[in-house]
Write a structure and sequence with these properties.
The chain has helices at residues 19-25, 46-59, 73-85, 88-97, 157-170, 172-177, 193-203, and strands spanning 37-38, 41-42, 104-113, 123-125, 130-140, 145-152, 183-185, 206-208. The protein is α/β, with parallel strands linked by helices. Helix 5 (157-170) runs parallel beside helix 7 (193-203). It folds into 2 domains: 19-86, no CATH class; 101-208, Nucleotidyltransferase, domain 5 (2-Layer Sandwich), CATH 3.30.420. Strands 3, 4, 5, 6, 7 and 8 form a 6-stranded mixed β-sheet that branches. A two-stranded antiparallel sheet has the order 1-2. 36% of the residues lie in helices and 20% in strands.
Length: 209
């Protein structure tokens, strides 16, 4: 009797990528040569790695709580880290966001608590009474993510917006993605002609409240 057995196809989860969705996304995926090894393990099925990421995003589970019919959490964590450090997630997001390019965006910040051992970029936001980090998030008017800047919670809104604009200028992917954004909607915390002039000098972008 043959010892070769076909691996049974697992039952799909609601978070799994569709066939058409995978066909589009794989154009922006990092190249992983067939049979290559990372840390002594054979390369995983990249579509299944993406399904595992989407499963975690949808459910909010921890790495170790991944179902056994998805790639093991150590493999999943390894790919996630390499793609994070190498800019692959940013490139994939830019690729998808370009499909719905817009000329207007929205910018806001959010202060988030972090533990004492949370590493660098951690401080106190006196207005929100939160010790931790602040993230500045730029989306288009449909809510699609364009860019994120992470800093200490003590950084003001205007300074954080300037840091985000500098980051856009340094990043090829994000600079190209946001090049068409001419108007950004913000709230009163970004008030001031200095930020308006700074934005216009960088990308010709107008901040409006």
């Amino acid at each position: 009797m043959s010892t070769n057995h076909k691996k049974e196809k697992r039952k799909s989860y609601p978070s799994d990528m569709s066939k058409n969705g995978w066909k589009k996304l794989r154009q922006a995926m990092p190249v992983v040569p067939s049979g290559s090894k990372h840390g002594g393990r054979p390369a995983a099925d990249i579509r299944e790695v993406m399904n595992a990421v989407l499963y975690m995003v949808k459910t909010g589970y921890s790495w170790r709580s991944l179902p056994h019919d998805l790639p093991c959490w150590q493999t999943m964590h390894g790919y996630f880290n390499r793609w994070s450090k190498g800019g692959s997630w940013e490139a994939m997001n830019c690729f998808l966001a370009k499909k719905a390019r817009t000329k207007a965006g929205c910018l806001d910040s959010q202060s988030v608590k972090t533990p004492a051992c949370g590493g660098r970029n951690r401080d106190y936001d006196a207005a929100k009474q939160i010790r931790g980090r602040k993230r500045f998030i730029l989306t288009d008017t449909q809510g699609l993510l364009l860019a994120v800047w992470l800093c200490a919670a003590s950084v003001s809104e205007k300074m954080g917006a300037k840091c985000l604009l500098r980051y856009l200028r340094r990043s090829f992917n994000l600079g190209e993605l946001c090049s068409q954004v001419k108007l950004v909607w913000v709230d009163g915390r970004y008030r001031g002609d200095d930020l308006r002039r700074f934005a216009q000098s960088r990308k010709g972008t107008e901040f409006s409240r």
